[in-house]
Amino acid sequence: MSLLERLGMSLPIVQAPMAGVSTPELAASVSNAGGLGSIALGASDATAARAMIEEVRARTTHPFNVNLFVHAPVKAEPMREAAWLEALAPIFRGFAAEPPGGLRTIYKSFVEDDEMLAMLIDLAPPVVSFHFGMPGIDRISALKSAGCALLATATSLAEAEVVAGARIDGVVAQGWEAGGHRGVFDPDAPDDRLGTMALTRLLAVRCPLPVIAAGGIMDGHAIRAVLDLGAVAAQLGTAFIACPESSADEAYRQALAGPGAEHTVMTRAISGRPARCLRNRFTDWGEHVELVAPGYPMTYDAGKALNAAARRAGETG
User: Fold this and answer.
1) Which helix (H) or strand (E) holds 94?
2) CB 165 within 8 A of CB 143
3) pLDDT tens-place string over residues 160-191
4) What is the dihedral sign for C-alpha 248, 251, 257, 259?
5) How buried is residue 190: exposed, middle or buried, by Cβ count under 10 Å (0-12/13-18/19+)?
6) Where are the beta strands (DSSP E) in the chain?
7) Is 29 helix (H, G, I), strand (E, B) or coil?
8) Is the alpha carbon torsion for 19, 23, 24, 28 positive or negative?
């Protein structure tokens, strides 16, 4: 049985699990149409994640994917975090706000989230995928014993080899063009920055797992191209943001439809991990700041607070 048959897919299309944008309604709509819909659980605790999974199940009888962040937990560095907040303070004050008094670990990694694991074993969603790395073999075995098919993101052949050695069912080849967070296992290691086409072909030839191509794929022509390169499916994220079922607000939708969408940048300033986004005042600041960003997700605590302050002042960029 092929991976697509196992996942119940009649179309070779996976909807990317975009935290903050993808919704249970969007995931169910994609799955009902024959693709594989996805929800992002990396920014949720076990209680919220359970509610999302149950909502997807209420909307579709088809398989769907739930995605988890598997970053290496980082230790607090009070001096670095204080310096980062001090550097951001003038921007906050430009929006008549103050930066947070300190930075928190706002997201727990799946590698240490026992409540999330127990919930997933209980509900056994059809597909579970990993981003930022791989959990321990005990967690992988527990999910497979529950009947879950497993996928994991890789940005290089070396990462794909780790995925293949861990009894994972398929690998998502995330090219450099991909929007959102880059899935590198170690954000401080050298990055080969392989494009989607090159990485897809490399993994199709050198990795024993079925390959799902991701990054910069926006239409049927690009889907056809990655299938010709050996992928079994294509994962699309940005292409789904404009759908009515996504939670993107009107400002976000207009930005993606405007000239700014032609100019993206990879930055750590927002979250502490490399992420591709539309260029804006925050990314411009991040390109010139001389400080090293605190670890993920502490930096994201400041980024989210700044975004909230800007929005209150009418700045949606």
Assistant:
1) helix 78-94
2) no
3) 999 999 999 999 999 999 999 999 999 999 99
4) negative
5) exposed
6) 13-15, 37-40, 64-69, 127-131, 149-154, 170-174, 180-181, 211-214, 233-236, 264-267, 275-278
7) helix
8) negative
Answer yes or no: are the C-beta atoms of 24 and 52 closer than 8 Å.
yes
For the stretch 252-290, pLDDT in tens is 999 999 998 889 999 999 999 999 999 999 999 999 999
Pairwise CA distance, residues 303 & 296, whole Å = 11
Contacts of 184 (CB under 8 A, 6+ apart): 132, 155, 156, 159, 191, 273, 274
Helix 196-206 and helix 157-164, axial crossing angle in degrees, nearest 10: 40
The reported pTM is: 0.96
**Which residue is associated with the tokens 């050996």?**
230
Digit-coded pLDDT (tens) for 206-238: 999 999 999 999 999 999 999 999 999 999 999
